[in-house]
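Intended use. Records like the one below are meant for learning the mapping from a protein sequence to its folded structure. Do not use them to infer anything beyond what is encoded.
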Amino acid sequence: MSRRLDTLAAVRDAVVSCARCPRLRSYCRRIARDKVRRFRDQDYWGKPVPGFGDPGARLLIVGLAPAAHGGNRTGRVFTGDASGDWLYDALHRNGFASQALSTGQGDGLRLTGCYVTASARCAPPDNKPSRIELDRCRGYLEAEIALLPRARIVVALGRIAHDSWLKASGHWAARPASTRPVFAHGRESRLPDGRILLASYHPSRQNTQTGRLTRAMWEAIFSRARALVDAT
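Structure written out for the chain above:
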C-alpha cells in the first residue's frame, strides 16, 4: 500500500478508491449497471466497500466480501442482504447495534463497541475472491487491526475470514502451521497477545437455509462474544 493508512478515515478513502483488482472492479461496475429487477430503481454503490463501526470497538467482526446486491448496492458492509439481516440482528440483541436492521447508508444505524469489516472489499463473482485478490486487499485489514487496538475479541465469519485475520494480524506467519488455530464453528482460540478469535460459519443462505448454521448456533456465538467483551 503506497498511501499512508494512519486513520480509519484514510483507510476508508483508500478502500473506496482502490482499483488493484481489475476483475473485481469490472464485475462490480457491471452489476451496478445491470442491477436486478427488485432493485432496478435504486442507485448502486458499485465501488469497494469500507469497514463500518465504532473506532473504540472492543469487538471486531470479519466477513468474506460484499454481496453483489448487498454491500455492492448499499455501500455498507453486510448490508442489504440476508447475511446482513442475521448479523445486525445479533449485534442489536447483544447491545452492539442501535437497531436490528441495516438497510443502507443514512438509515441511522450506529455500532457501539463493534467494528465490521471484510477480507475482500469488492463483491467477487460467485462469492469467490482469488488468493491473489485477497492478498492485494489484506493491507486494509492490517491497517484496521492496527487502528482498532481495543478490539481484543474477533469473530471470524467463515474459514477465509478466519485465515485472513490470522494473516493480517501477524499470527499466521509467527506460528508453525501445526500450531495455528484451525477453523471450526464455535472454536475459541486464545492468542499469545491476549486476543481471542471466535470462529463461526458465515450466515450465507447456503448455510442458513440448509441447517448447517441454525439460529441457536448463531445466537450462541454472539452471546459468547458479548461475554468475552464484558470480561476484558
